[in-house]
Write a structure and sequence with these properties.
alpha/beta, 14% strand, 27% helix, three-stranded parallel sheet, seven-stranded mixed sheet, globular, 9 helices
Length: 391
C-alpha cells in the first residue's frame, strides 16, 4: 500500500516541530454535516459503504454563493492485498466505526491538523483565512484508493473500485441539494492523491457547475499533486489504473489524444496543458515524497515542466516553494504573502482587473529551513523578496 497516508507522514513531523513553539489558539468549531450517498447505488468506497462528503453552509449572506471544495488525499492502493487492507480503514470505508459521524468539526478531521493540511481555505478563523472563512465548504471524503478514477461495474474480490462514480455522485448531489449550481466562485483543490485528483477532475467539476451558472468562476488548486512519471510511482499508478479500470476517470482530452498510451494521462506532466480550467497549483520543488535521488535536478525539473505545461498559459498562476514538505504549505509566506492572499491577488481582483502577479516562485538552495516559515520551521529568509519570479 504505497503512500497509504502520504500527507500524514508530513503532518506528524511538522506538528512535532510546531509543538515546541507557542501554538496559536485553536480556531472556533467548524461544524460540517455528513452526506452519505446511499441514493447513488454506484457510488461506493472500497468496502461497499456509500460515498461520503461533508458540507458546511456559508456563514455570511454576502458570500453565500462562494465555495471552497477540498478533495481529501491519502495515497493509493495498487493490489488486491493493499486495497483489502485499506478497505478496513477511513481511507477505504465511510462506516461510522471509522470515526465518520453525522457532524464533524472540519478543524479536527483526521489528517487535516486544523485544516492547514486540507487546503487552509476551509479554516473558519478570519485571522488565518480572511478570504474564505465564511464561504460554503465541501470536504470530499477519499475512500476509493485511486484518486477518484475507478470504474469497475462489479465488485472484484469483494472490493468496489468506483472512484469515478463517487466523483460524479458527489458533484451531482452538491448541485441538487446544496446549491452548488448557484455558485459564483468555486475554489477546488486537494492534497497529494487529492491534488492528483484535482488535475484529473477539475474540468469535469467546472463543466458541471457552469452548466447551471455559465458565469461561475472556477479555479483548480492542486496541492502536491504534480506526481512525476518516475521512481516508484510509474508502477503504482499504472497498477491501480489497470486494476480499477480508470480510463473514464482521467482527463478526457488526454485520453482522446494518447490512445494506446492512455496511462500517460495518469501524470500531469503529460496533460496539464490540456486542462481548460484556470489553475493555481501549490508545489514544493523539494517535495520529500516526489523528489528522486538528485533533489536539485528534480527541483529544476518541477520548475521547467510546470512552466511548460501550466505557467505558459496566461490564465494560470501558481505557488512554488522551497520548503521540504509534502502538502500543508498554505500558511507559508513568500515575499510576506500567504497562499490564500496570493489566490485572492491572482483570481479575485476587484472588478475583475488583471492580476498584478500570477506566479510566486521561491528558489532556494536545499535544505531551506527558513522557507518553512509557518511554525514548522524557522523565520522567513531575509532576502526572500529576491526569490519571486513574476510573469
Amino acid at each position: 500500500n504505497m503512500l497509504g497516508s502520504a500527507c500524514l507522514v508530513s503532518i506528524v513531523a511538522v506538528a512535532a516541530r510546531a509543538s515546541a513553539s507557542s501554538a496559536p489558539p485553536p480556531p472556533p468549531p467548524n461544524i460540517a454535516t455528513a452526506h452519505w450517498l446511499d441514493e447513488y447505488p454506484m457510488a461506493k468506497c472500497l468496502d461497499g459503504s456509500p460515498s461520503l462528503y461533508y458540507h458546511r453552509a456559508a456563514t455570511s449572506a454576502v458570500n453565500s454563493t462562494k465555495w471552497v471544495i477540498h478533495i481529501q488525499g491519502g495515497g493509493w492502493c495498487s493490489s488486491t492485498a493493499s486495497c483489502t487492507s485499506r478497505s478496513t480503514s477511513r481511507l477505504g470505508s465511510s462506516k461510522r466505526e471509522y470515526n465518520n459521524n453525522e457532524t464533524m468539526d472540519l478543524n479536527t478531521i483526521e489528517g487535516c491538523d486544523d485544516n492547514r493540511w486540507c487546503g487552509a481555505l476551509m479554516v473558519n478563523d478570519p485571522a488565518i483565512n480572511p478570504l474564505a472563512h465564511d464561504w460554503n465548504i465541501a470536504f470530499l471524503y477519499y475512500c476509493d484508493g485511486a484518486s477518484w478514477t475507478g470504474n469497475q461495474q462489479d465488485p472484484i474480490d469483494g472490493l468496489y473500485y468506483r472512484g469515478w462514480h463517487n466523483m460524479q455522485a458527489v458533484v451531482t448531489d452538491l448541485i441538487a441539494n446544496e446549491h452548488l449550481g448557484d455558485a459564483t466562485v468555486a475554489l477546488i483543490g486537494g492534497d497529494s492523491a487529492g491534488g492528483l485528483a484535482t488535475f484529473f477532475h477539475i474540468d469535469f467539476m467546472r463543466e458541471q457547475i457552469q452548466s447551471k451558472n455559465p458565469t461561475a468562476r472556477v479555479l483548480g488548486q492542486p496541492d502536491s499533486g504534480f506526481w512525476p512519471d518516475g521512481e516508484g510511482f510509474a508502477t503504482t499508478f499504472r497498477d491501480f489504473f489497470t486494476m480499477q479500470n480508470s480510463t473514464a476517470g482521467l482527463n478526457s482530452k488526454c485520453v482522446a489524444a494518447e490512445g494506446a498510451n492512455v496511462t500517460k494521462c495518469l501524470f500531469p506532466q503529460y496533460f496539464a496543458q490540456m486542462i481548460e480550467t484556470p489553475l493555481f497549483p501549490l508545489q514544493s520543488i523539494y517535495d520529500p515524497l516526489q523528489k528522486d535521488s538528485d533533489r536539485d535536478a528534480h527541483g529544476q525539473w518541477i520548475i521547467n515542466t510546470m512552466n511548460a505545461t501550466i505557467f505558459s498559459n496566461p490564465q494560470n498562476g501558481g505557488w512554488l516553494h522551497s520548503c521540504e514538505r509534502h502538502c500543508g504549505a498554505e500558511l507559508l509566506t513568500i515575499d510576506g504573502v500567504h497562499y490564500p492572499e496570493a489566490v485572492q491577488d491572482f483570481f479575485l481582483t476587484p472588478g475583475g482587473a488583471p492580476p498584478s502577479q500570477k506566479l510566486w516562485l521561491q528558489i532556494k538552495p536545499y535544505p531551506c529551513t527558513a522557507c518553512c516559515n509557518d511554525g514548522g520551521g524557522s523565520a522567513p529568509a531575509a532576502n526572500e523578496t529576491n526569490s519571486i519570479w513574476r510573469l
